[in-house]
Amino acid sequence: MNLFAQFGKSSVMYTDDNHGYLLPYRNDANTASSTAKFAMGQAPSKWLLASYIPTKDSIAVGMLNRNQTVRSNIDCPAREFDASISSDKEYIFGINNTISAQNVKANYCKRPSETSILAECHASGAAKYGTSSYTLWFIQHQNRASVAYLDGHAGLLMRDKKPKDGTFPFYNFAP
Questions:
Q1: Where are the chain's structural domains?
Q2: Residues 6+ apart with CB under 8 A from 67
Q3: Which of 22, 51, 94, 148 shows its CA 20 to 30 Å from the CA of 173?
């Protein structure tokens, strides 16, 4: 959970440094652009939070590859690649898909202490969660998922308390 407390605080610092705008999935619509950076699942040079949480290596943050033997010092050491997925990569941390693409300011958020921004996820397509194809991860931590919230705090969400995808306030900034 310590890491997710850092994620929460870093996302608040990002918001403060970017005129109140919440952390996006990516900062540039053109993913091939040399300036495109992402919230998770990228090498440190392409990671939006790199200036807030420096890494000690060049390995992608929040992503595992099939048969990977070395991982980023930020990634959870207990997390293993899920061989049942059809891809050669798996995102293990993600950003809330419901709000990350909306280019919204933090002051629009009605309940920031209950709205998630980053969490442990299980996805092969992108480092996101909040829709049926991008889901939270409950295998570790005694059926709980680590979550960072918009107000900067972090916590563990019990599997049986998981809100329905897209609902307010966990996934959405306003009802």
A1: 2-161
A2: 81
A3: 51
CA 34 – CA 46 distance, rounded (Å): 9
Task: Give which of 18, 22, 42 is closest to 118, Cα–Cα.
Answer: 22
Q: What is the pTM of this model?
A: 0.89
Q: What is the Cα–Cα distance from 100 to 103, expressed in whole angstroms? A: 7
Element (H, E) at 95: strand 89-96
**DSSP secondary structure letter of residue 46:** G
